[in-house]
Request: fold
Amino acid sequence: MKEKLLECFKKMYGYDEGVSVYFAPGRVNLIGEHTDYNGGHVFPCALSIGTFAAVAKRDDDRIRFFSMNFEDRGIFETSLSDLVYSDEAGWTNYPKGVMWAFEGRGFKIPDGMDIVIYGNIPNGSGLSSSASLEVLTGFMLRDLFGFELTNQDLAIIGQYSENNFNGMNCGIMDQFASAMGKKDNAIFLDTATLEFEYAPVVLEGMKIVVTNSKVKHSLVDSAYNDRRSSCEKALLELQKVIDIKTLGDLTEEEFEKNRSAIPDTDRQKKARHAVYENQRTVKAFNALKAGDIEAFGKYMNESHISLRDDYDVSCPEIDLLVDEAWKIPEVLGSRITGGGFGGCTVSIVKDEAIDGFKEKLSASYKKAFDMEPEFYVVSIGDGPSKL
Reply:
């Protein structure tokens, strides 16, 4: 991959002196969905797929971007004095946003750069290609210019730029999983305090299989922000009757006792998901620590039902993939992962059933939607690195 990037860099920019190559991973969330902006727990892991960059400093303030994934778009050019969001900038708004956030924190970027990007996270799959690109940008800026920042700082800056530069109200999970990833471990993260613990994911005779529905319903960004504001309203209503800072502070019992403080039934359902999903994630983490993969799988299934029925972020394509997975005895758990309205499912499948799993889901999906899903048998990888 490094050779490919360097070759492309030379072809696009005409030189290959002083070029460094970096990588930051995508993530899959095993359980704990839509809890990260509700002060709850999440349980993601970094993947061995992600985003790569070949970068060299310039002696002026120009920034040139080229993506091997969008070759037909050519080189996009901007400058350090023009770090503003624009529709024409397309995907480059993500790295531009991180540069803008660095400068806003007093980390002055002294030189422009020539950059080639390549990502092997499938586009629109919900495996966090945007967070991967943000963490990658932060990591390379820190290395190139010697900024004193931790990987956790890079996650916070990535989230800040996505919220305030790109206008997407995401929580911290995606950037944190990419920046803090550790091979063969998931990250049990309390999003209210950023306290975290690594948990070894030991799957004897099993694999994590990500199934890409290849659909992305266009309402994802606006609907995501709608759900966030529903939860914020529900929190304000609950705070009138119980002393809490976030929905993640509540147990299931406390929620049930006080739910009538939320007059709107739809808001009640959204808040219920946030509370129950947080508690489920804590239980799933404890089950995994105890080596009880079967219980972990059961919590994954319950998570999907809650996301489908209470949080209303699933869709027919995803539901079919999950329903078909549940029919296979060697599947321990399966659920939607990511923001929703399409994207991927994550399943834990016994090794001997993986081929059958792919065949069964493909056949049912083709019959129902005349499309082929894509499957990735994923391994849990490390955080960002210089190659």
